[in-house]
Design brief:
The protein is an all-alpha fold. The chain is about 70% helix and about 0% strand. The chain is flat.
Amino acid sequence: MPKFEGETPGSIGNEVSAGAEVAVETGPVQGRAEMVVVLAQQGIGRNEISRRTGIPAVSVSRIAEANGITFDGRQVEVALRARIAELKQAQAGIALGLHEDIAVARMLLRTARTHRDYAFAAKAISDLTQSAQRMTPEISEQEALEETKDFLKDFAADLRAARTSFEMEYGIPLESPEATKLAREQLGLDKQDD
């Protein structure tokens, strides 16, 4: 963690006790407290803020508490899932790059003019293939099930919202014959031939 001019080991505590109203005027340490406050207000968890800013997690908690911010466990869980998804995506990108490298190594294998070049290309293909297999993220059955559940929950919520919106706009229940007639008219299914 970089040291700032005038920073002492107790400076994080000073920044907490000074309060948010003097955050900008007193120097770099206050700026770090301001970063903590901004990130916490965005719903980012304590450990993630600590990782991003280099401020110890306990100090992040103190700064947040001094500014009236609490960390919600549900937000932390959502942030953790998002972070895991980001890491899996990065891992998949690396695996894809390794597959491209395998293709290049295969071309080198085909164009090898000496036994030594052939052996090096074959070894490279073997090593790259093993690395690509290790880097390809695996989706467990449990993860797939959780993703499906989340999708279905979101879909059900969207359907409820659409139903509520329809009933508020037209003032009739969605299951009513009037609603069916209205829907058929809007879809052009009940047009009369002139």
